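Figure 2 data, in text form.
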Amino acid sequence: MLRNRNETEDNAGPPQSIALLCGVERRRLVGGHASRVELRLAHLYPDTMNLYADRGNVIALTKRCRWHGIELKTESISIGNDIDTSQFDLVFLGGGQDKEQRLVGNDLLSKQQSLAEMADDNVVMLVVCGGYQLFGNFYRPAHGPELKGLAILDIETIAGNRRLIGNVVLKTDIMAGQELLVGFENHSGKTYLGAGVRPLGRTDVGFGNNGEDGLEGAVYKNVFGTYLHGSLLPKNPQFTDHLITLALKRRYGHVDLNVLDDSFEEAAHKAAVAKARSKKKIK
């Protein structure tokens, strides 16, 4: 079903494919009134970990959920807040510099058991740059003590002696229909993957995890770690929908999202890829 996203929310009800959830009836409230299909997102430390417009990833998730007829409820989880493992379908953690990573590090470790349980229960998580590093085993900065990570992703990060900056194009096989992801990286940390994860993709343009092995990001179950800012999700609408689909599948069973008119998004994605490739770095 092709939906015109210029329709107002008042005039455009949830698309039939979502309303039916591929044959699974929508949940019903007391009195027989159908409720909206909804997902819940935990946004970790939005006031601290938000480099390079990482908040745009949450905006992209919210918008595309709305266009698909899904209500996305977002809750900010800051220092001192508990996280209810049963309440959330998605988790997002953005990037931060060493100062911000130290600021949230101990509090994040206090949530380690909860987040690990959620990861093992296939909750969908996207963690970017500094958040990506903190989801690993450790981050060893150039100055100061080593930061212990959550060990949800089997990765290790050490500070390098130069910054890895520029546009990135990845070749990926994590989803059907889109072979390329595009974004922007700016990090000095060099991340190395362990046996418990697989890469998000291989770099066609850019440095990736460490500028050495050609790999970028890490994936464990439904946990996706990456250095790609940009923001990542607005530039890659199919990846955004992939995350939404995984979250829906976990909560409701198999679903097929309705088809949106993504002509503008696809054109922007292709333009970003072309621009990155036109300035391809020689490593």
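Caption note: Residues 19 and 167 are 39 Å apart (CA to CA).
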